[in-house]
Structure formats: C-alpha cells, structure tokens
Design a protein that fits this description.
Distance between the termini: 45 Å
Strand content: 25-35%
Oligomer: single chain
Signal peptide: 1-20
Largest sheet: 2 strands, antiparallel
Helix content: 25-40%
Number of helices: 1
Strand order of the largest sheet: 1-2
Order of helices and strands: HEEEE
Number of strands: 4
Structural class: alpha+beta
Keywords: Signal
C-alpha cells in the first residue's frame, strides 16, 4: 500500500504545480494605455492617447481604436513615436 501512495502523491503534486505555474503566467498580463500613430505629413508623426486600455500579452486580437477599428493601437514609445503593438484584453 505504501508503494502505491507515494507515486500517487508525487503525480498529484506535479499536476498541481503545473496548474499553478500556468495561472501565474496568465496573470502577468500587463495593461497599458493604447496610443494611435497620427501622420501629419512630411515625416511628422504624433503618438496620441486613444483612451483605451490594451494588453502587452500577444493574442490573436490586436487592440484597435474604437472610433476607427482599422487603426491598431500601440504602447507609447515617445511623443513622436509609438512603440510595440498592443492586444485586446482577455477576460
């Protein structure tokens, strides 16, 4: 009986650890304000806040501006340059 319990306990502990690790990774979803890049012509760009929160965790859905869904939102890099692409927040 003792030879049976020890392996079962080890398997259950391993399974529990795997689920705990997965949940920690999923909870590290960083929320950032989405910015849209506006071209004013002649190489003049401006990064404007789109008033929408997005996630840095890559998913299939890119975060888009609610006023124009064809505009993809980005993290702010500087006033004249938007950084990397952001993604929709997953529930």
């Amino acid at each position: 009986m003792k030879k049976f319990i020890f392996p079962v306990v080890l398997i259950l502990m391993g399974t529990g650890s795997a689920f705990a690790t997965k949940m920690v990774k999923e909870s590290k979803q960083a929320i950032e304000a989405g910015y849209r890049l506006v071209n004013h012509g002649e190489g003049q760009f401006e990064c404007i806040n789109a008033d929408k929160d997005c996630s840095t965790v890559a998913t299939a859905n890119v975060c888009t501006w609610s006023a124009d869904p064809s505009v993809q939102l980005r993290a702010v890099g500087s006033e004249t340059m938007c950084g990397e692409l952001l993604y929709e927040i997953q529930p």
